[in-house]
Automatic annotation (TrEMBL):
Belongs to the G-protein coupled receptor 1 family. It comes from Nyctereutes procyonoides (Raccoon dog). Residues 47-298 form the G-protein coupled receptors family 1 profile domain. Coiled coil: none annotated. This is Olfactory receptor. The keyword Mitochondrion does not apply.
């Protein structure tokens, strides 16, 4: 299928709208792909909203780990809601158009919220480190004021470091095409449409990616190295297993978030021989799966959350 450059602003060499192609090569099965996408979106919405309500109403869950988890849930809800409705409209109604400004806004939200998610996962790792390596100082170090400060710092870091991205793209010339070979707007997909020099902008994007997700991941690894050193010094096997069990949920969250994130990041920049539909499918998994899995992981592994959830369901059924 061929697309031509529509609604083109000749003065600024900037299209007024972009066309989202979807998943290249799989356009014929978009309607079928939309079914699991929609189900995952609904589960994500219900799971994260339920988690927020459970933590809010249960004062015993007002601990640093669960407060950071609630911040992660809010970011998850915002991220999926800024992308999935548009993706589903593309799959269901073949509505491909997205205004230039709306595309830049979506791109900014995706990258800034993803950065915030990474920061909240790091904050949860910091909580585990303090709880295991310095248990007697946990309540004095992670006070409500410190938790709020960390949360605001993570939000401002994501909002400020990613704020140049829309401006880096806004004033460029898009003289090639207005067709984005993706299901949503993101930095690397847009910059490929530019016909001017983009080395500085690409370099800034790489630096920001390293200073946020890359650095966060390194610090998470460091925290777990220190946690393991502390655990291995515990006197009994039972104590070691009990301590490690408090980290299982968080480790799963790390794997679910960073595995598709790194794969998507690396294939965008270095995986030129990987089929486009594979890369875009993984990029969509990165948006869909972590927001759905985070409340499920903690719901399954945390007895208090699980009991409250079933109690909530019982009340609703009655």
């Amino acid at each position: 299928m061929e697309y031509v450059l529509l609604n083109y602003n000749r003065t600024s060499l900037r299209p007024t709208t972009f066309l989202l192609l979807g998943i290249p090569g799989l356009e014929a099965v978009h309607i079928w792909i939309s079914v699991p996408f929609c189900l995952v979106y609904l589960v994500s919405l219900m799971g994260n909203i339920a988690l927020l309500l459970i933590v809010k109403t249960d004062h015993k869950l007002h601990e640093p780990m669960y407060l950071f988890l609630c911040m992660l849930s809010v970011a998850d809800l915002m991220l999926t809601s800024s992308t999935l409705p548009k993706i589903l409209s593309l799959f269901w109604f073949n509505y491909r158009e997205i205004y230039f400004e709306a595309c830049l806004l979506q791109m900014y939200l995706i990258h800034s919220l993803s950065t915030m998610e990474s920061g909240f996962i790091l904050a949860m790792a910091f909580d585990r480190y303090i709880a295991i390596c310095h248990p007697l100082r946990h309540s004095t170090l992670l006070t409500p004021a410190v938790i709020v400060g960390l949360g605001l710092g993570i939000v401002f870091r994501g909002a400020i470091l990613l704020s140049p991205h829309p401006f880096l793209l806004r004033w460029l010339s898009y003289c090639r095409t207005n067709v984005i070979s993706h299901t949503y707007c993101e930095f690397m997909a847009l910059i490929k449409l530019v016909c001017t020099e983009t080395k500085i902008r690409r370099a800034y994007s790489l630096i920001v990616a390293f200073l946020t997700g890359g650095l966060d991941f390194i610090l998470i690894i460091c925290s777990y190295v220190l946690i393991l050193l502390t655990v291995f010094n515990l006197p009994s096997k039972a104590a070691r297993l009990k301590t490690l069990s408090t980290c299982v949920s968080h480790v799963w969250v790390i794997l679910v978030f960073y595995t598709p994130a790194f794969f998507s990041f690396l294939t965008h920049r270095f995986g030129h021989h990987i089929a486009p539909h594979i890369h875009i499918f993984v990029a969509n998994i990165y948006l869909l799966i972590p927001p759905m899995m985070n409340p499920i992981i903690y719901g399954v592994k945390t007895k208090r959350i699980r009991e409250r959830f079933f109690k909530f369901l019982t009340i609703k059924c009655v």
